Amino acid sequence: MNTILLIKEIYKEGFKNLGNIIIKKYFKAFAWFSFIMFFIVLYAFIYRLSTGFAFD
């Protein structure tokens, strides 16, 4: 019984912060992706304004 509890405790310690690391990396990547997409849209809008595109 002690061996099972020890294995359970080692498993818990090994994977305790894994979820937080994955979530932090995901949100950091999503933030960078969002900033890049925003600047692409901003560039396209300014390009259309400077070339005289008719927004009808």
pLDDT averaged residue by residue: 88
CA-based gyration radius: 24 Å
Biggest sheet character: none
- Strand percentage lies at under 5%
N-to-C terminal Cα separation, in Å?
A: 75 Å
Please report the total strand number as a whole number.
0
- Structural class designation: mainly alpha
- What best-fitting shape do the alpha-carbon axes yield? rod-shaped
pLDDT below 50 for ≥5 consecutive residues: which ranges? none
Helix content: over 70%
How would you describe this protein?
This protein has 56 residues and is mostly helical. The protein has a domain at 24-56. Helix content is 84%, strand content 0%. It contains two helices and no strands. The radius of gyration is 24 Å and the shape is rod-shaped. The relative contact order is 0.06.
In short:
The protein has 56 residues and is an all-alpha fold. The protein has helices spanning 2-15, 18-50.
Question: What is the element layout, followed by pairings?
Answer:
Blueprint (H helix, E strand, L loop, with lengths): L1 H14 L2 H33 L6
List keywords for this structure.
single chain; 56 residues; mainly alpha; 2 helices; rod-shaped
